[in-house]
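Customer escalation, tier 2.

The customer says the design service returned an amino acid string that "doesn't look like it belongs to this structure." They asked us to rerun it and document both sides in this ticket. The original structure tokens are below, unchanged.
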């Protein structure tokens, strides 16, 4: 499969040199030369995709066993995407994390750590944004149109492999290992904001 890597490293970072050397006839490396952010990076990669589907995943995952063929079989012509679904508030925070969630419903959130999406269907909704939950405005757009249950599908066996939230608990996974808050935890340990830059809310 063709691979697109969006590298948000500073030019002097060793990671930038490493990723640059990965370029090949099937691997495209795009270097904005600054931390473009998760959501904007995904949009940049999606805009360069020439295939019908795109498999989007975080740089901190480890594929233990590929679920891709099975995920592809779940895709129908109108499917937006297949992956791990998390209960999320309309504000982009995990459902239950804020007091106001008690008086609100929740929306299904297709988590970006490992998701298969239909490119044409992605372009019908709000694009991914710079936010702690970069897909939340897309998911909210789908939810408001009453299409969540129709367009978003959960693949059994996906989920976080460590940590605990309000509605989930990490456990060993068959397919993808995803230990949450990798880079965010690192930034906090250095007394920086979890995510660089101003979050987008519209």
């Amino acid at each position: 499969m063709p691979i697109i890597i969006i590298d948000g490293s500073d030019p002097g970072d060793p990671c930038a040199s490493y990723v640059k050397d990965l370029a090949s006839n099937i691997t495209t490396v795009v270097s904005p030369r600054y931390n473009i952010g998760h959501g904007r990076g995904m949009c940049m990669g999606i805009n360069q995709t020439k295939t019908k589907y795109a498999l989007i995943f975080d740089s901190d995952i480890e594929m233990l066993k590929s679920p891709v063929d099975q995920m592809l079989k779940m895709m129908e012509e109108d499917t937006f995407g297949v992956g791990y679904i998390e209960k999320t508030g309309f504000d982009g925070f995990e459902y239950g994390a804020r007091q106001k969630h008690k008086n609100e419903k929740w929306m299904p959130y297709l988590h970006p750590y490992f998701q298969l999406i239909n490119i044409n269907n992605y372009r019908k909704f709000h694009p991914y944004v710079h936010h702690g939950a970069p897909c939340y405005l897309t998911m909210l757009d789908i939810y408001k149109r009453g299409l969540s249950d129709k367009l978003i599908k959960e693949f059994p066996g996906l989920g976080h492999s460590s940590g605990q939230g309000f509605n989930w608990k990490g456990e060993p996974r068959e397919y993808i290992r995803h230990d949450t808050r990798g880079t965010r935890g690192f930034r906090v340990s250095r007394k920086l904001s979890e995510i660089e830059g101003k979050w987008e809310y519209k």
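Tier 2 assessment: The sequence is consistent with the input. Helices lie at 14-20, 38-47, 68-74, 119-122, 136-144, 148-151, 182-189. The two ends are 33 Å apart (CA to CA). Sent an explanation to the customer and offered a walkthrough call.
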